Fold this protein.
Amino acid sequence: MSHLRENFYRHIAQTSESPIGLEIEQAEGCYLYTTDGKRYVDLISGIAVSSLGHRHPSVIKAIKDQVDRHLHVMVFGEFIQKPQSEFAELLTAHLPESLSQVYFVNSGTEANEGALKLAKKHTGRSRFISFKNSYHGDTHGSLSVTGRDIYRDPYKPLLPGVEFLEFNEPNQLGSITDQTAAVIMEPVQGEGGVIPADVDWLKSLRRRCNETGTLLIFDEIQTGFFRTGTLFAFEQYDVIPDILCLAKAMGGGMPMGAFVSSPEIMKVFKYNPPLNHVTTFGGHPVSCAAACANLKTLLAEGLGRNAVKIEKVAREMLHGKGIVELRGRGAMLGLQLESNRLTKKVVEKSFHQGLILGWTLHSDTLIRIAPPLVIDSKLLRESFQIILDSVESAL
Ligand code: PMP
């Protein structure tokens, strides 16, 4: 075992018995390069992060330019920092008018934490509605609204007053009442198995929130930044959330998250007492500079169209014996296989052919497919062929 590997097992906190354990030397575009000289195609983009591929030149340049100006100077919200303001302007220019104020954080779970607190303080209520099989992150608040008992049980008691409804089930929306601070949901459930919300159901959900004065929070941490074809998935539903949570692909590979809302809602953080929701590193200037370059490039290169193309090629190629279903939207896809045994074998066999695939947290018969949006058609087809060959030889 190499010294590096030995150190990894000895000194890096382990999150499972069987980490993938690739020893990374470099990453560029759609490829990961390991210290033993091998090359892998990253078909999961570091879990829906590297939409421009790894080390996109525009992002690298923005990072280097910002490093030459300044790093951290002050906690979020006090100093006027160009990368923050510029990025917030660009982001909100592509959002509905009501979503015009951005609170920057460092990760997805922090975005959801902020959104939940914001909803509580704005409404003066403390109950939340979430959905079965949802995933919202692993800090206490986000875990409290995550809809899978197996992850929640070891950490109870969690936040009280959280109820989990069936996703896409219109008959349960009556559970949203004038006691509910917010409903939090993913427009396409990611870890739950890549399940898109039904359009009519989501519209009814919005209506029920309006009737009861409940805020609607969209967790677009995984679906955001063109992953599903449009900049944000909610654009495909004609439904506008009160709070939008973002992270993952936002920073172009840098740690970055945000929750976005209206000045009317966001203002509660300003008083009683002032500074009642603060963060030291939220909106780090280097992350904001990277995020700004990332979004400019995604927009300029029309990469939403690529997400749509990726889905088209996937639907054309990924079917046959052993494959139950291909689910999802754009470049956020899940390939449902016949059994857990088959899924495991296909992931292993593809890996040996130099293809990184993944699982989702709540499903062991689903292969996650979320390539960088910049992947070209030849590499995409070759990668899908590896999956098909792996299924065939594993059956
Ligand atoms: N919400 C969703 C929908 C996610 O997919 C994730 C991460 N998988 C999170 C929240 C948590 O994000 P983070 O890991 O950055 O805390």
The chain has a mean pLDDT of 97. The pocket of 4'-deoxy-4'-aminopyridoxal-5'-phosphate is lined by residues 107-109, 112, 135-137, 186, 190-191, 219, 221-222, 247 (CB under 6 Å). The domain at 3-55+302-394 is CATH 3.90.1150.10 (Aspartate Aminotransferase, domain 1).
